[in-house]
Amino acid sequence: MLLAIAVAGMFGRALGFEFVYDDRVLIEQTPQVGDWATLWTALSHDLFHFAPVRASPYWRPLITLSYYVDHSLGDGAPWAFHADNLVALWLAGLGLFRLLRRHAELTPAAVGTALFVCHPLLVEATVNIASRTDLYCAALLFHGLASRRTYVACALVFAACLSKELAVFAPLVAFALEPRDRRWLWMFLPVLLFLALRTLVVEVGGDASFRGAWESGGRALFLTTRPFLPVPLAPAYEMPTLGGPLGWLVILPLGALSAWRLRGVQAGGAALLAVCVLPVSGLLQANPRYGDGLMVLGVAGAALLVCRWRPTALAALPFVVLGQLQVGPWRSEATLWETAHERLPESAEIRLNYARTLVDEEPGLALALLEAHGFEDERKERERRAVQARAYLIRGEEKQGASHALMASADDAEAVWASSIACVYGDEVGDACLWAMKYSSDPNVFNAAALHAEDAAERHRLFVEACRLSPSEGPFCNNARRSELELRPRSEDPVP
């Protein structure tokens, strides 16, 4: 009850928050989530199967199922999804408390749980719906490790794997906690079953390589220090040359020392921290250096390591304050990217996302944000050009808008729109018109291309196509009839 009150007090205002970032892609822009007939297709494909993005290596059917349930309970409203996240955090805290009580007294267990629940690194996982993967994984994993029944523990570990891939390291954590208990051997069964099913469902790729693992040492050091240090004090992981070697030179001796000296609950905490480091080279995740949500298990590991240290209770108090300061920006897409831009003003990707939220109401500011920040990645650069095109057209600057829309051309819905605009406002049948006509069914596009065409036969063909696509007899069909007259041979004695 105390834990539920604490969670509600710290994060209850999230019930009034909107969909932000990946929430919009996975839920708001995916109408299939509201149709139970599509559930089997969703469960048997990757997490982003219905989303308008490229295929992902993430197979998390339990998370997908939770989206369908939440949509039904709240009729698609964001509050139901946020309420699910709050329950998941409460269950994760309860599971950690049960786990700690198996290895520590009541007071250390309560202190460790409080440190976990109020930690600032859990803000994103709690108030961002798409980050519930880590909360589900943590809750199921902790209850599985705390269970005294082997078959219950294995079932919960399997469910944790269906929430996030990090749960495959459950046997490692179980062995660290209780090496003499043979349950950790049984836990390999659900892990192997999950890996086999995942291989059948998604294409298991990644950037695992010796070079990638070596260079990721800086990231490993960054991850393991974040639960203990504020972000500005945590060692940077993007140091150009020294980051990887320096990181592993610190991490490996610490790991060896932990394995030699730590026992019981502290050994389990070290193992949970290691879980965040192990997939850093891409063995299980395509982009493991992204998002605070990755640190849910790491924060739990830190709580296990320090729960018996008496000053831990006092250390939890500033974490409550820091965490509360980070909850507000997640209220909406605009507040999220505005805060991120204030913190990292030079980040080109944050500028792009911030400009996208501003473009309809403040196109001038959106243009200022994007003007001098290009991308080497072709897809990101097309997105930037599309936002610029929209801003120029809202301001009534058709020429500049058409130019940027043409540069945004690509085989996706946003680029179809951008190229169509470039065709309508252009002066000739250029690449934008040809590309737009290939992918668009908008009669305006064919009508505009016909107006630009110099050849009478081609002009007539395009007008006819515009008439065919038009929902009713109107100007497009009138243009088609007029262009047909141009094709008739002129007689010497025309009939009046």
Q: What's the end-to-end separation, in Å? A: 93 Å
DSSP helical segment count: 28
**Percent of residues in helices:** 55-70%
Task: Give me the strand/helix succession.
Answer: HHHHHHHHHHHHHHHHHHHHHHHHHHHH
Please describe what this structure looks like.
The chain is an all-alpha fold and 496 residues long. The chain starts with a helix and ends in a 9-residue tail after the last helix. Helix content is 65%, strand content 0%. It has 28 helices and no strands. It has 3 domains: 2-329, no CATH class; 332-438; 441-489, no CATH class. The longest helix is centred in the N-terminal third of the chain and has 26 residues, at 78-103. The radius of gyration is 28 Å and the shape is elongated. Helix 6 packs parallel to helix 18.
List the helices and strands and how they pair.
Elements: H1 2-11, H2 22-28, H3 39-43, H4 61-74, H5 78-103, H6 106-118, H7 123-127, H8 132-146, H9 150-161, H10 170-177, H11 183-186, H12 188-201, H13 210-215, H14 217-225, H15 243-261, H16 264-277, H17 296-306, H18 312-327, H19 333-343, H20 348-358, H21 363-370, H22 378-394, H23 398-407, H24 413-425, H25 431-439, H26 443-452, H27 456-469, H28 475-487
Helix pairs in contact: 1-5, 4-5, 5-6, 5-8, 6-17, 6-18, 8-9, 9-12, 10-16, 14-15, 14-16, 16-17, 19-20, 20-21, 20-22, 21-22, 22-23, 23-24, 24-25, 24-26, 25-26, 26-27, 27-28
